[in-house]
Amino acid sequence: MGGELREACGVFGVFGRPGAAPLTYRGLFALQHRGQESAGIAWLEAGDVRVTKGMGLVTEALDEGALPAAPDVAMGHVRYSTTGPSTAENAQPLVARTRFGPVALAHNGNLTNFFRLKARLEAEGAVFQTTSDSELLAHLVARRPETDVVDAILAAVDALEGGFAYLLLLPRALIGVRDPHGIRPLVLGRLESAFALASETCALDAVGAEFLREVEPGELVVITDAGVRSVRREAGRPAFCVFELVYFARADSVFRGQTVHEARRAMGRQLAREHPVAADVVVGVPDSSLPAAMGYAEAAGLPFDFGLVKNRYVGRTFIAPGQTARELSVSQKLAAVRSVVAGRRVVLVDDSLVRGTTSRHLVQLLRRAGAMAVHMRIASPPYKFACHYGIDTSRADELAAARWDLERIRREVGADSLAYLSVEGLERAVGTGGWCLACFGGGYPVPVEEVLHERQ
Fold first, then answer.
1. What is the structure's pLDDT at 92?
2. For residue 185, is pLDDT > 50?
3. Which of 55-59, 119-123, 233-237 has the lowest mean pLDDT?
4. Which H or E element spans position 339?
5. Are 198 and 92 members of one domain?
6. Do 155 and 144 touch, CB atoms closer than 8 A?
7. Better-scored residue on pLDDT, 223 or 128
8. 252: number of CA atoms within 13 Å, CB side?
9. Which residues contact 31 (CB under 8 A, 6 or more apart)?
10. Which of 3, 181, 287, 415 could form a disulfide with 239 if both were Cys (CB 3.0 to 4.6 A apart)?
11. Mean pLDDT of 314-321
12. 418-422 average pLDDT score
């Protein structure tokens, strides 16, 4: 995407299959696009929870060859920080020693009432070992009066607000829980007699697991030796993050019965219907924007070509921490193919335009490669409002569409023309209803006044 967004994290877990830790490694590798700052794996061994984690990519943070082969329960995490800095202490899974025994947890999302709950717990004597909001659930569980750990987790989760998906690893249990609006994703799969939980179906595919279903909003899934048990909590209005389809999720993942690839292609087709332009070739920004560019070309009757190439050894720029790192990453990441764009009018399709850093650089790349004109088309609506549910846009004053009108953004990025997909067009492409559209002006499904106050 304009390569300027970062997602919170990815989670993966397996119950009931020897070699669960190496399988989790493979699952995390498939989820690497969701977080590139740290990675970790926890497993059950001799009735205790063991954990290994480190900074960097999965291959850097974890030694696959050192993972134990015997344990049949494990879960893991890849992280991009949205609450708490990118440090070793914040790497997950986190392990807590409670009266229920050891508990490891991994979290994708953001808790909007983190500051208030943390202050209350600290006043009661809690000592936080990290600066991540993920740790909050462990403290809440440890303080619950219930004698059954599942009941304690249910009560603790009821205190949380925001967008979240948690995995919890306990002696002989793997538990997954999703926020009441289903903002952040979580899916359930089967691996012969074993079961798996993951942020995306692509991770299930990576270990040969069959996709069963998405975990429902507000649902708690308990996997034990007795099988899978579902505990339904009160659900709110469904509000799945539409940016999973726009940018974050891998193209082969499936949500709501459609592949991400086809959803993005439909966005591109709708974009061409709404904003046609006289041009010679359609170019997409690798990788997440390529399906949208294909769809645009298909609907517009124009040729699609690879006018930009990607250095695949540079991470996702939306996921790079800090503006300076993002700009450096962009400059190292993409290059224009002169033979494709020289002397031609180019439609440049990107999935989103958030801060504008990447868009400006891409337009310059194409012009230096000889493009006669660059018409920028964005396969999502203007990103005007900050996300507080697990995407790194907590400051609205960083967002181009919140600061400038369309003409000013066009001038800032240097394009000959600029147009966005409408909100109505987005829903026409992916299905109407049940989405979180807060970043496009659709209203926040969970109140954010508290987090806005704390971040001022």
1. 94
2. yes
3. 233-237
4. helix 338-341
5. yes
6. yes
7. 223
8. 10
9. 10, 11, 12, 78, 198, 199, 200, 202, 203
10. 181
11. 51
12. 98
Beta strands in 180-332 (DSSP E): 187-191, 194-198, 210-214, 219-224, 227-232, 240-241, 254-255, 258-259, 281-284, 304-305, 308-310
Owning domain of residue 429: 260-454
**Could you tell me if residue 250 is inside a domain?**
no
The number of domains in the chain is 2
189 and 119: one domain? yes
Q: Which of 185, 193, 192, 195 is nearest to 254 (CA)?
A: 185
CA distance 316 to 333: 9
Provide the 8-state DSSP code for 247: I
CA dihedral 253, 242, 74, 150 (to 10 degrees): -140
Residue 393 to residue 403: CA distance in whole angstroms: 14
pTM above 0.70, yes or no: yes
* Token duo for residue 415: 């394009």
What CATH code is carried by the domain that includes residue 65? 3.60.20.10
Side chain identity, residue 141: V
Strand order in the sheet with 73-79: 48-55, 38-45, 73-79, 9-15, 194-198, 187-191, 210-214
